[in-house]
Design a protein that fits this description.
Helix content: 10-25%
Largest sheet: 2 strands, parallel
Distance between the termini: 67 Å
Radius of gyration: 18 Å
Shape: elongated
Number of helices: 3
Strand order of the largest sheet: 1-2
Number of domains: 1
């Protein structure tokens, strides 16, 4: 009996590793220490490095989830965590 090995594709998704807040956005905030504290708290630090696997496709963004959370539903009613955490809304600046 001969065993054939299939090649499997691996996709690594690290949606919350980004820390970039473009200067055009940063300049609109009045409390930058609070923004920096929230950025530090909400970033999934080092996940992009932890899951860097040779040959794997990587899906990520350098932009912080403070600006866009790529895993959120547009309709917050569909978001399971909306009842216990921040949802889709305009941030006061």
């Amino acid at each position: 009996m001969t065993h054939q090995h299939e090649e499997l594709s691996l996709v690594i998704h690290t949606p919350h590793a980004g820390t970039t807040i473009p200067a055009s956005e940063r300049s609109t905030y009045t409390n930058l220490p609070a923004v920096d504290a929230e950025l530090s708290r909400l970033t999934d630090w080092f996940t992009d490095e932890l899951f860097a696997i040779d040959g794997a496709a990587v899906v990520s963004t350098p932009i912080s989830r403070l600006l866009v959370d790529v895993e959120r539903f547009i309709d917050d009613a569909l978001e399971p965590k909306a009842a216990v955490g921040p949802g889709v809304r305009s941030l006061s600046r």
